[in-house]
Amino acid sequence: KIKTLPNIEQVKEKRHQHLAKILSVSYKKPIYVEKATFQYMYDAYGNTFLDAYNNIPHVGHSHPKVVKAGQEQMAKLNTNTRYLYEILNIYAEKLLSKFPPSLSKVFFVTSGSEANDLAIRMAKKHTGHSNVMVVEHGYHGHTQADIDISDYKFNNPKGQGQKKHVVKTIIPDTYRGRFTKNDGTAGKQYAEIAINDIKTSPNKIAAFIAEPIVGCGGQIPLAKGYLKPVYEAIRAQDGICISDEVQTGFGRLGDHFWGYEAENVIPDMVVIGKPIGNGHPMAAVICTDEIADSFNTGVEFFTSFGGNPVSCAIGLAVLEVIEEENLQENARIIGNYYKEEFALLQKKFPCIGDIRGSGLFLGFDIIKDNTTEADTELAHHIKNELRERNILISTDGPADNVLKTKPPLIFTKKDVDIVIQNTKIILENHYNEK
Ligand code: PMP
Q1: What atom in ligand 1 is closest to the CA of residue 112?
Q2: What pLDDT shows up at residue 61?
Q3: What is an example of a GO molecular function annotated in this UniProt entry (predicted)?
């Protein structure tokens, strides 16, 4: 039987018939994917794409060990946490072994949004305070409570605006921001601003939530030395500190398993998601005994799917693969190589303004030559040209001019070379045409 190839326009039309137009599709020329393995995605027309973008398939798309763990558990038992089953305890213990002893309780849920929503609810319950302090350009999820604390969404010209209970502090950005000396000086200066925001907040702050590297801000690492004084000031007024590690967790940053570790702080709560299940919908809130106890209000906490045996089996397999395949170390080595190679391109092409991030969570800031002004058009051109060359990368940031790359952690030097060589050709062509 001869397979008829799908017509992209028809597929798009059909999608619009049943799904709202608000669902976006990547690239000018969308990709009709059929399957994916490790760092490769395959479309319906026989093309292979190098995936330099997707961080959810953390240990590789369809990793056989993860797939097998899910299949076997699904064939045996899937139920909810109102029953006792061994794998919940095994997985919880294994996951918590990745945290310091003070972070001793885990709540399993099914998305990063749900986890942040729960974290904020628990923080309010624990502290009795109502305000939440957030970082400019941050994103924490799509529930109403999450949108309220996500500047990336509420601050959109078409967004809902900033709610009264939200205190927004400026992003401690050492590239385009007010303070740029990233040896701890800028961190301290930004922290002073945040501390002033805390002190002048009309109501006490229940929680301060931040991503270690602000993804939607354009992969912006919080300035060095920023978190510690801010955490101290939050705690001084009996608030709690939340690290949103949905993007940055599980060894992606190379040097550390969790992003907060780089700053020598210990949060009171950590929110994790995306790579936790390598694509299976899972997330979790990790917190202290005290915060978990405060939530023990007599009103049951229950979620139908959080912590189900299939998710636990998958989550456990992901942690085992990260260890067995030494993926945190791979993220460190390949991430450093990626940055070095991009720095060589930067010497040739003045449109590459900043190279930042850690491990395999990187951003390349595309600018109008030799300025710090964003060049959105060029960033989109590079992204779409890479797609034409079967390489997947994205853009983000307030001006959407930052090339965002966060591939599966199995990425190799050869894969980096492919991204670099093709970016080089695209930029050479761009400058030749100029
Ligand atoms: N926090 C951060 C930092 C995120 O990047 C995201 C998703 N992009 C979320 C939370 C929400 O997670 P989810 O999409 O699984 O609901």
Answers
A1: 12
A2: 98
A3: transaminase activity
Check residue 103 and give its pLDDT: 98
CATH 3.40.50.1000 fits 64-324, yes or no: no
The domain defined by 8-59+326-433 folds into: Aspartate Aminotransferase, domain 1 (3.90.1150)
pLDDT for res 6: 85
Q: What is the pLDDT of residue 379?
A: 98
Rg (CA), the chain: 22
pTM exceeding the 0.95 threshold for the entire prediction: yes
Where do runs of H (alpha helix) occur along 143-237?
Answer: 144-148, 151-154, 185-199, 227-236
Distance 246 CA to ligand 1 centre (A): 6
Domain spans, the chain: 8-59+326-433, 64-324
How far apart are the CA of 70 and the centre of ligand 1, in A?
23
Contact, 284 vs 107, CB < 8 A?
yes
Residue nearest ligand 1's atom 1 by CA = 140
Q: How far is CA 150 from CA 143, 160, 207, 228, 261, in A?
A: 10, 11, 14, 22, 23
Query: How many CA atoms, within 13 angstroms, populate the side-chain half-sphere of residue 329?
Result: 5
The predicted complex's ipTM stands at 0.99
Residue 51: φ, ψ to 5°: -90, 100
Nearest to 210 by CA among 108, 129, 139: 139
Find the DSSP H helices in 267-326. Answer: 289-294, 309-324
- Give residue 370's pLDDT: 86
**Two tokens at 374?**
């964003």
How buried is 191 (Cβ within 10 angstroms: 0-12 exposed, 13-18 middle, 19+ buried)?
Answer: buried
341-381 residue pLDDT tens: 999 999 999 999 999 999 999 999 999 998 999 999 999 99
* Ligand 1 surroundings by CB, under 6 angstroms: 111-113, 116, 139-142, 211, 215, 244, 246-247, 273-274, 283
Query: Residue ranges of the alpha helices (H) in 227-281?
Result: 227-236
Confidence of residue 434 (pLDDT cuts 50, 70, 90): confident
Selection from 364, 366, 383 nearest residue 374 by Cα: 366
Tokens of 393: 């990368």
* Mean pLDDT, residues 140-160: 97
8-59+326-433 shares its CATH topology with 64-324: no
